[in-house]
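Hi R.,

Here are the chain sequences for the assembly we discussed:
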Amino acid sequence: MDRIVRVIQFGLGPIGCATARQVIARNSLELVGAVDIDPKKSGRDVGEVIGFSDPVGIPVFAGLSDALVGSNADAAIHTTSSFFPLFRDQIRDLLNSGLDVVSTAEELSYPWLANPGQAAEIDAIAKTAGKTITGTGVNPGFLMDALPLFLTSISQSIDRISVRRVINASLRRGPFQAKIGSGLTPAEFMQRMESGRMGHVGLRESIGMVFDTLGRRLERYESSVEPVVADSKIETDHFTVEAGFVRGLLQTATGYDERGEFVHLTFEASLEAEDDGDLIRIEGSPSLEVTLKGTNGDIATVAIAVNTLVRTVEADPGLMTMRDLPIVTWVE
Amino acid sequence: MDRIVRVIQFGLGPIGCATARQVIARNSLELVGAVDIDPKKSGRDVGEVIGFSDPVGIPVFAGLSDALVGSNADAAIHTTSSFFPLFRDQIRDLLNSGLDVVSTAEELSYPWLANPGQAAEIDAIAKTAGKTITGTGVNPGFLMDALPLFLTSISQSIDRISVRRVINASLRRGPFQAKIGSGLTPAEFMQRMESGRMGHVGLRESIGMVFDTLGRRLERYESSVEPVVADSKIETDHFTVEAGFVRGLLQTATGYDERGEFVHLTFEASLEAEDDGDLIRIEGSPSLEVTLKGTNGDIATVAIAVNTLVRTVEADPGLMTMRDLPIVTWVE
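And here is the predicted structure of the full complex:
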């Protein structure tokens, strides 16, 4: 791609602010607009909002139509909500405005299994608009789906795939430590779980991508979430967790085909977790064991959203996922 | 892809025999022809040649035109030589016969840097024929190029990439043990090196793919090969190596851009090598360290050639490499 992609940042939460900074840092991308409904952000210069010392000369607008005026934008990075009911209209408007879109919405990373009707609707909107929307992220979107799938390129046969991701939340932001239940009682944790306000989103999407791509039929899907409880007192910059209180969560998902368990995913995010890192096992011929250290979720999600822009602009119209595009790489 | 791809196996050395067995094992592929110039193979049933107890009803022909008759073939797997002067006419004939082609020729894995004129010629032949040729393999083609590139999808910035592959040749075939110089004196090793008959082919291609894809300019390229010498006596099923004699080779390649060293590759294949496995480091933000165990070169090269067929048939015409196709995965 020889031309510069002109980008609107849609959503200026922590991830959106970081993607905006990355867009500005890259030679092949140019930030030409920014949207956030938060009245504390709209109306200000985007440089102020994303933490630059100097203004960048682009105002944050509360609505897309204002941001589009005179922007000549090619594409948008969408970083608002994880869930279809909340992002559906936003994505529709972005596509119908003539923009290619990269979204970090977890439910878009591979919606064909969990939300096939809504996936088909977005796909149809994109094709009618002649534009491309790609759902991406580090997890879902890479570590538990696209990367293991790419590793199967050297497989003669596959018996079982498992991925274990462990995040030492002590090294992460305060909101992340809160999100995983730090400081709650185990009972409070379970209550929040039951009301659907806790837990990592995306294991179902990852299992969907792996099953569909490898031609397996998902016969049964099981998942679990449980609190990880502190044995002794833990103090971070943001939380004090006494022994017996929650220091994080442990989540699993398992996909079965007619032969039995085929994919098993484990996600642990907890304060003072040991073995921060990722382990991918592909049992078969050959049996592979792949260990990753350093896949920091904040840095990596921002990076993959920005890095996916060029491949998205180049792709055919429709809803794409990370298994459909040519391998995404860092871009200038 | 819903239809079955009909495949001709071109070349029945150890790798070609194994890819033919894999094609037969896969539901989405069908072996419809086989070619080998060796008079000990041509004329026989391919089942006999590839080590099946029963014939498969397909004769091995010495030439492509005979194998094509009545085969209705869609594609070919090409596993003969590593080098352009030796495979150029074979690839041309396969494409001009209306076949999509996957080749394990190392020089085709990313020829745009080392052999740009010959790459352009093959690309033009493929486009004129309306067919696709993909160069692939585990190394080059995956471990030192396409896989590190895919890992950069989660990079915000990259300072340096290094890959170290260590193969314990004690676990490999006799011809492999011979190829890396097992049992030679160091002087004999260097003599063979100088006559160009020793050393792993493909480090240059891997460096080319990484530099071009990441938009770096290769200012300088350095490579080295040296013997690994036994400290004490080693015995394998195929070789006895006394202390002071060669037990394998250590090869490096380094690519520099205007800022300095950017990619460093190390390839060691030796009898009784410790740490059999691969280590990919991407220094930058984040700094990633990825360790792979189990990437057996014989199994993996065969697998990736077979797994790349469907993506190749689906791709636009021309010369493709592993960074151009949607991620290759195991296929049914």
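The longest helix of chain A spans residues 297-314. Chain A has two domains: 5-137+299-320, 146-293.

Let me know if anything looks off.

Best,
T.
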